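Hi C.,

You asked whether I'd gotten around to modeling the 388-residue construct. I have! Everything is below, sequence then structure, no commentary in between.
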Amino acid sequence: MVMLADTDAGSVVTAAQSGATWGYRLLLVQLALVPVLIVVLELSARLAITTGKGFTELIREHFGGAWAGVAVGTLVVTVLGALVTEFAGLAGVGELFGVPPAATVPIAASALVALVVTGGYRRVEVVGLVLGSLELVFVVAAMLAHPHVGAVAGGFVSSQPLGNHSYLALVAANVGAVVMPWMIFYQQSAIVQKGLTSRNLRVARLDVVAGAVVTQIVMGAVLVAAAARLHSAGPLRTIGQLATALAPALGGTAGRVILALGIGGAALVAGIVVSLAATWAVAEALGKPRDLNRSVRHARPFYALYVAVVVAGAALVLASGSLVRLAVDVEILNALLLPFVLVFLALLAHRALPRPYRLVRGQRVAFAAAAGPLIAVALLWVGLALGL
């Protein structure tokens, strides 16, 4: 579920912007991030299964409440940014059919609140998986866009414009759109919520691998569809522009429906995941109960916090500007904050993992190889922003 949420509305828009602006060049980045996702999320799952504790709870236990507060603060920033892009994506979908954001956003927020407040974790997960599966329509869109096979292959061998500031910004955005800080928080808390044990570790690893492959297939499909239909038209500015570009291949109505299903499903499943990630993390930092299967009557503070997170995101989006620019900026922010979370993940792997489950040398090398480029991208972008 967290992998389907990874391909959220902001990620879809970022992938589309990548294809519209740079053709197939950034497709290589999408594929290269598959093993990175697997390594990072496998370690997160291993920590949760072997310790029975969430990410924030482990930070509080091993580094103190102050650092747990810093971690939660980092998470809240990325969650609010994500929620803004999810609601903005839903608003963009509504506008495709003439529904104003003032109607779409409150309805979507109410649906998210109703789902979590009235149902246990199992129901939330099933609904999330169904919504997330709608993202697969982008694979159909990519095929119907009829990309030129030679042009797609050429994207892998063409020179990379590493001296171009806007290109590097999109590289950072794509990294932030794939490996997001809130994924680690949610992954661990959800595993604890489900009560998985060491007997489930192998299945959890297979789940991580399958999710990483599926989410990057979807991201790649969005990029390919946009590159095939929009590259010659220049940068993407609105969701409607993407629907218009797909219209010749899909038909006007079909193009809008595909975008509505894909972006709507992505935004809703991500909205569930990021809002729960923040709620669980705050509860863990405060040492409060965080069981989603408890009724509202027995867990009022937990559900009140969840509602507050959702409402804050919905309120912020109504004051936001361009979805495309907003989505790319939020993903860059994710990339900038990701190193902080990865450092904690590495430290917890050393301190918290029981001896039989600790990383062996090859696994430590694999994690360093996965985390190193992510940290390098963040530092590079900081340097560019500061003019260094």
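If it helps when you're writing up: The chain has one domain: 2-385.

Thanks,
B.
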